[in-house]
Amino acid sequence: MNPDMILLRFGEFTVKGKNRDKFDKRITEQVRKAVAGYARAEIVRAYGRIYITLNGEPYEEMAVKLKSIFGIASFSPILRTTSELEAISGAALAVMQALPKQPETFKVSVRRVDKGFPHDSQEMNHLVGGHVLRELPGLKVNVREPEVELRVEIQPEGTYVFSSVVPGAGGYPYGTNGKAMLLLSGGIDSPVAGYLAMRQGLELEAVHYHSYPFTSEKATEKVIDLVRRLAHFTGSSIKLHLVSFTDIQTAIAQCNHNSLIITLMRRSMLRIAEQLAEQREAHGLVTGDSLGQVASQTLGSMNVIGRTTVLPLLRPLVTMDKNEIIRIARQIGTFETSILPYEDCCTLFVPKNPTTNPNLNIVENAEAGILNLQEMIRQAVATVETMNITPEIQSAVESAGQDDWF
Ligand code: ATP
Ligand code: MG
């Protein structure tokens, strides 16, 4: 049985005064896009809520799409009936019978918004509950910890019956909290950092450093693929800036500060990203750093590396452990691509003993000793290659269809 409608719920942003309109507009736009392929589905706004009327369009497919829209806190597939006791009891029973697994306990929670309805909430709990209990022998009421909470909302325009509350992606609608540049390698971490930044409402443009001919076309294709996955969550597209890092990397590798190579590379990367951010009117830089994960991500390294930029450096993964990061990478569909074995520019000249506690003075002196470093950085920015990456047709989130209905 297909539900009649889907009720969408939003996060805390719905109460945030000034920004509310922006959020509202953006989320409606995103939902409209998700629904666009289904001719019979309609978006209905009522009393500050958004519903999708399915008119026979498939719920499960749409649920997969809704799960990737940032700003949706949760949603519920619902049956809609007229506000008459018999119809409501019938719908309540239908919702219970459609559960994939019959529960042992349940409770009914009625909300009577339409005060003109003749029975109050308490009476309705008993009336509807009684009907379900009579029809489903073996089922018991448990008010404190029911396996299923059967919800009935009696609204002026009709009554909604549902039991399932499907968690959404949460966060803020994409692009409602400003724009930042994402430093995107081909690894596991930075795509996850990008996802979390986007979920918090940041619009992103990705920057990737490659070292042709040391790094292969395949490595770049892999990054394009990752951006494509991330673009899926935007409802539109993401710009990818490909930066040639070969000259800078070669110069750094030759500068006789073996243990500082990664530190120096990261600093140059940030400088380039900052210049691109200025051009693109972005106000922050997002990286996949996670505290202590490698030598360049100790607090000491982060300090010396981060000093190159005045823009806020956002590190969504900074306190996450690797397993958590991998779990999200799998969930958002970037993991399999990230583990493809193509060389990244940073893995090329990895020193044997990278420093975990670089000294800022020594690092600055080393940079001063690299001939034309600033010029090479300017050149890298000037020759950047920009692509607009649109989402893949296929969905990145695969699990929504397995959730319970109602
Ligand atoms: P990731 O899995 O994101 O590559 P990592 O744990 O391998 O992270 P590093 O390789 O040390 O860590 O990189 C730290 C961060 O620096 C990355 O998360 C990314 O934001 C940025 N970065 C590293 N290499 C590149 C690159 N080639 N292009 C763009 N950003 C990069
Ligand atoms: Mg990496």
From TrEMBL:
tRNA-binding listed as a keyword: yes
Keywords: ATP-binding, Cytoplasm, Nucleotide-binding, RNA-binding, Thiamine biosynthesis, Transferase, tRNA-binding
Protein name per its UniProtKB record: Probable tRNA sulfurtransferase
UniProt pathway annotation: Cofactor biosynthesis; thiamine diphosphate biosynthesis
Gene name as annotated: thiI
Reaction(s) the record says it catalyses: [ThiI sulfur-carrier protein]-S-sulfanyl-L-cysteine + a uridine in tRNA + 2 reduced [2Fe-2S]-[ferredoxin] + ATP + H(+) = [ThiI sulfur-carrier protein]-L-cysteine + a 4-thiouridine in tRNA + 2 oxidized [2Fe-2S]-[ferredoxin] + AMP + diphosphate; [ThiS sulfur-carrier protein]-C-terminal Gly-Gly-AMP + S-sulfanyl-L-cysteinyl-[cysteine desulfurase] + AH2 = [ThiS sulfur-carrier protein]-C-terminal-Gly-aminoethanethioate + L-cysteinyl-[cysteine desulfurase] + A + AMP + 2 H(+)
Described function: Catalyzes the ATP-dependent transfer of a sulfur to tRNA to produce 4-thiouridine in position 8 of tRNAs, which functions as a near-UV photosensor. Also catalyzes the transfer of sulfur to the sulfur carrier protein ThiS, forming ThiS-thiocarboxylate. This is a step in the synthesis of thiazole, in the thiamine biosynthesis pathway. The sulfur is donated as persulfide by IscS.
Family to which this protein belongs: Belongs to the ThiI family.
GO cellular component, one term: cytosol
GO process terms (BP): thiamine biosynthetic process; thiamine diphosphate biosynthetic process; thiazole biosynthetic process; tRNA 4-thiouridine biosynthesis
SMART domains noted in UniProt: THUMP
Catalytic activity, EC: 2.8.1.4
Residues noted as binding ATP in the record, renumbered to the chain: 183-184, 208-209, 266, 288, 297
Gene3D superfamilies cross-referenced by the UniProt entry: 3.30.2130.30, HUPs (3.40.50.620)
GO MF term set: ATP binding; CCA tRNA nucleotidyltransferase activity; tRNA binding; tRNA-uracil-4 sulfurtransferase activity
SUPFAM superfamilies to which the protein is assigned, alphabetical: Adenine nucleotide alpha hydrolases-like, THUMP domain-like
